[in-house]
Amino acid sequence: MNKESLIRFCDVSYRYESDNETPLPLAIKNINIDIKKGEFVAILGHNGSGKSTIAKLSNAIILPEDGKVFVEGMDTADESLEYEIRQKVGVVFQNPDNQIVATIVEEDVAFGPENLGIEPKEIRQRVDDALKSVGMYEYRLHEPHKLSGGQKQRVAIAGVMAMQTDCIVLDEPTAMLDPKGREEVMNSMLRLNKEMGKTVVLITHYMDEAVKADRVIVMNSGNVVLDGTPREVFAHEDIIENAGLELPDSAKLALKLKKNGVNLPDGILTPEEFIEGFKFSVSGGASQ
Amino acid sequence: MSILEIKNLSYKYGVGTPFEIDALDNISFSVEKGEMVAIIGHTGSGKSTLIQHFNALLKASEGQVLLEGKDINESRESAHKARFRVGLCFQYPEYQLFESTVYKDIAFGPANMGLDKAEIDRRVRKAAEFVGLKESMLDKSPFDLSGGEKRRVAIAGVMAMEPEVLIMDEPAAGLDPRGRKVILDLIKNYREKTGSTVIIVSHSMEDVASVADRIIVLNKGRVAFNDSVEEVFSHEKELREMGLNIPQITKIFSELRSFGFNLSGNVYTVDDAAEEILRYLHKGGN
To answer: B38 and which of A132, B133, B208, B278 could share a cystine (Cβ 3.0–4.6 Å)?
Structure first.
């Protein structure tokens, strides 16, 4: 895999503005993260841990108080590069109703490329491709407000795709969705990453979504406390719990059984792994 | 007698326009005093429309909402009273905070009920204690609090009206796992201590399984199931077709059973699951 850096946070700190004299504490503190091209990275953390701040810093919506953020080597603090940076990294937010601007799906998806001043013919092509990539092409002439939450969120993702960004950052895109909507959005993100080679940064509270990423970063009170593969990260139960998070249910169950003397393999994270491990351990006559 | 009874309720949006749509279609069910009922359904299934009928925020196109046997829409007065007897806590209620202090925000509901100062004070302090807000926080601006704390202030504001029926629309949405647990525990605690009836609307099958006695499933504006947690979650296929699911742990168990492990089907949480597996292994795998 190409290991070129796409978004790099170098000693970044950020503080939100206070509405009185006492300054607010730092939202993120001296953070170093290097997101590589083609990666699927999940960022976990409690409410207020600084996750969304990272999303906003990644395409110059806000700028660091200290340190630097680079997108393909471009400093986000350099105003002259702002347009170019936003064409590399797009952000999708939590509430689909707040990010849809047009009354027809395909017009909404066209909004981004239109603002970039792209040729109409090229826009048509991009909109069709983007809608196909999230499985919403048949809905191109529908009214967005009549779609389900999962469908609206996929339209929002298509809007970013149509700008042909290399990287898409999603800030809790599934928080307001029902189980089917969550599954649809998760599958779209995986497809963009695995089949189209897009870099995906997924900020989430759902552990079962993080398990599907290549890499998991855990934030706690503005600091990065863990950064590794899901298996490496979820092996640190204590740090995860200290960060206000929890292990995925399958991992919790496996750990609980192991503590009670049941012989299961290490590192179980998903239902499939639990079932395999359990079958092997029980049918294989392993000790109890 | 049921505390809340919904009788043949239908609701149409856009009546008389070409966009007329049946949001709710002939809904009937009842809720007993002290019960904890969950309402689940895909986005757009009519959950939020339905609960707004329970305290007369919406008036049914057809059918009735009975509170202790009496139609809440009988008169203006009964509809007004229903607002206090049935407390409705909306999704993301923290966006509705507006007062200058936490105390005033929690006091807003009881003050509107026309209670005297001493009673309002008692209720504010009690509700704040229920949701785990310290005394020292009452004088703070709600806007200086964290997201989880703001949510608890908003919930306290509804609890302070001491409604007979408390309805919570997605109370844990958008919170981290610890925040979710805090909110769910406080709802369980509130119901145990006050004996109130609680209706919770949720998209999380895990949360529903951990708190509810009974589940009502809405699908396209109709009641698809109205049954025990056990019965409802035994319909995985139908639930999936409705855009829902069963808890992850329950899915693991149904799969293990299909491989011939003689495990109970009635398992929804990690704790239940661990107990059941240990029981199974202890008996030598039978």
So the answer is: B208
